[in-house]
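Quick start: load a record and inspect it. Here is Putative endoplasmic reticulum membrane protein C16E8.02:
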Amino acid sequence: MSLSGLFNINKQITFYGAYHSQSVNVLIHLVFVPVLLWTFQVMASQLPVPSFIPPVHLVLNEYLTFDLNWSAIHAGIYLLYYFLLEPTAALLYVPQMTLSLLTATTFSYKPDALTTAALVHLGSWAAQFAGHYLAEGRQPALIDNLIEVSPATLLLLRVSAHALGYKPALRKSIQADTAAEIARVKAAKAGSPAKKEL
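Running the structure step on this input writes:
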């Protein structure tokens, strides 16, 4: 996908769908993409922040903590990007991102948080690679486009919303585009010239 497609969610869903069409692989991603985000937030919460960032520390309860740290900054940038991509889906995603951030920040204060988060993070990547190579039968999208990783949580939300009836005409159009992209990739793999470029 070209850089111009970064702000075109329909192209991103088509690209994402071409790598996630097998049901077991999709289920693996629905479970482990949020886990990857959460464990990243735990690890990033432990990084020192520059002195110009004000020290904000709010304990809402024993499970929910907000710190103005790299995880919070990352979450804010993601949400801003998600609102630029798809405001409705982004709005639906705000509670999940908020809960992920607040619980990850709380967990980051545990003595073994970094080790636990790193191990779960690596295990989540392993599960997704297994889903791609064993269930899907092709390499992960990030091998072809590392930038695609960033909106994965929003794309999964939007794909789930389509499955529940959100914008059915658009869903059909994206499914057709995804099927065409899968056919293009299979043809290219077989040595045929590419028929369509996203």
